[in-house]
């Protein structure tokens, strides 16, 4: 995943306003009370969000499974003059040197963890590495989005140097959505082709709340996409905010 075209990722995500997301995180931190000296970005990818949070004064750590994505992230951080520690680790089994004030995970990373036990393990690790009272913020693509907006649909984008096609299949029984992506990148007079298959799982709000609480975290809020509003039936993205409440909590 994100191997051959890690260097294309930022171009493909150019519609994401990372600054707006980082401002939203800080608004949540202020609203619910959370220190922001040291933070962890789980599934950091090419480090765009990690860097935005670092620019706002936090000492940041980024964790990602893809060495290719982290290579891009390191290059970007050096170019920006930012000192960020990037760790090539699986978020379902990551290790830190100590605890952090906050943890964020952006752009539906949790949907990629399709096994509920593995997802609970992530939540337990987050609880373990959060300072007392620290906050964990993550977002998910909703079942409505995966089944009715993305699922069983096809998308095409034709840029100056990149053409990509994206076809999706959603299975209601398993709640899994498979993404079949094909990219063509201009290389002189020719094009290079990259193919990827990604899978996301749809999780219900109650299901995620239960997993968080069973992992020892206290759910503070669930918000509609980048707002402080309540979730809607047609919400395509939800933000979950959970707080550390003791390392011995959870079953």
What does the model show?
This protein has helices at 9-12, 18-32, 48-55, 67-80, 116-129, 143-150, 205-214; strands at 38-42, 59-64, 85-88, 100-105, 130-141, 154-158, 162-171, 176-187, 190-201, 217-224, 237-244. With 251 residues, the protein is α/β, with parallel strands linked by helices. The chain folds into two domains: 6-142 and 202-244, Rossmann fold; 144-200, S-adenosyl-L-methionine-dependent methyltransferases (N-terminal domain of TfIIb), CATH 2.20.25. Strands 3-2-1-4-5-11-10 form a seven-stranded mixed sheet, with helices on both faces. A four-stranded antiparallel sheet has the order 6-7-8-9, covered by helices on one side. Helix 2 crosses helix 3. The longest helix has 15 residues, at 18-32.
Give a brief description:
This protein has 251 residues and is α/β, with parallel strands linked by helices.
Taken as a percent bin, the fraction of beta residues is 35-45%
Question: How many discrete domains?
Answer: 2
Tell me the number of strands: 11
The shape is globular
- Order of the strands making up the biggest sheet: 3-2-1-4-5-11-10
Q: Helix-strand pattern, N to C?
A: HHEHEHEEHEHEEEEHEE
CATH fold-level topology of the largest domain = Rossmann fold
Tell me the structural class.
alpha/beta
CATH superfamily label of the largest domain: Vaccinia Virus protein VP39
Cα distance spanning the termini: 32 Å
**How many H/I helices?**
7
Helix content: 25-40%
- Oligomer classification: single chain
